[in-house]
Please model this.
Amino acid sequence: MIKSKEDLKLYLQEDKKALYRKKRRPPFYDDVWKFEIALRKCEYYNNVKGFFHRFLLLFWKYRKFRLSQITGIHIPLNVFGKGLAIVHSGPIIVNGSARVGDYCRIHVGVNIGTAAGPEVLVPEIGNNVYIGPGAKIFGNIKIADYVAIGANAVVNKDIPTPSVSVGGIPARVISNKGSRGMMYDPEQ
Model:
């Protein structure tokens, strides 16, 4: 969670590295990178209290809303850790109560949501997780670190074993490769 100017700077730097961007600022056509910047600025101004911060929060919330309309990405504040990499613009829906660790790579068509019922039962996803295109993750489940979730997989049960690849409907372990080598990893 971003709680200081230093945290904001760290999150923005790690997001940039995870997106494999070299330029200092996003070019005019890179709406995904602009969305991630707006998301992080909203998190900062929402979490750090101050009179002037309320006005800046309104500005960045509006900017995030507009970019969300353009890209189809709907991610609430304070869900993802540092190093978020959104690969493509397109529909990505995330429940605001879900928790995702650091260095997550997420593709188009992903839905991270709650299980059916009156309670909010949402996933808790570990660090360095790759989420393939069209994956659906829902329910009160825990996903371990370095897990790779395949395209169009439906994950509705715990994946407690780290460094595995899962796929299918419902998702099951299909290999022991995991997400290493598929995405940015600060430890490599």
In short: The first strand starts at residue 73 and ends at 74. Residues 51-71 form the longest helix (21 residues). The mean pLDDT is 92. The chain is about 30% helix and 20% strand.
